[in-house]
Write a structure and sequence with these properties.
Sufe protein. Chain: A, alpha+beta, 18% strand, 144 residues, 3 strands, 3-stranded antiparallel sheet, single chain
Length: 144
Amino acid sequence: MREFWMRLMSVVVIVGLILGYNSVLEARAKDEEIAKLKAKIENTENLEGQDSKNGSYKDGTYTGEADGFGGTVKVEVIVKKQKIKEVNIVSADGEDGSYLTMAKDIIPKILDAQSAEVDTISGATFSSTGIKNATKQALEKAVK
């Protein structure tokens, strides 16, 4: 009977070690993905000085695309009387719904600043970065 309990304990320990090792591997994979996404953000933030700050955009409707957390985010920017009047998300098929909902809070910031040079939304950093960078790309087409 004692031998049975020893073997059972050995099996439990081995299973515990395997599960612990798998969780470490998953955490490393997530950390690597986050590092890649942060590198994308840093690369795009280097372009921040390119927006027009005085609101002198050409009237029209412009589109832009950029990578969000779950894929490509496409926006439509409407400029009237040389001001950004609307930023609409045309598609964001790969984005998680809850993150996208939080990330949409960046749109009023863009409208207030009349520029895509605004801070991202905490809790939805990568999704809001997608909206921000897509808007920036659209505004590059609208700069006088």
